[in-house]
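Handout, page 2. Input:
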Amino acid sequence: MNYQNDDLRIKEIKELLPPVALLEKFPATENAANTV
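Output:
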């Protein structure tokens, strides 16, 4: 059964970008790539 007040802490639901899209938008620096 689904209640309207099931979880009042959720303000909104947003779709997240996939990791590939994040890497294209914010490419890792050489220093960061060597660290990981």
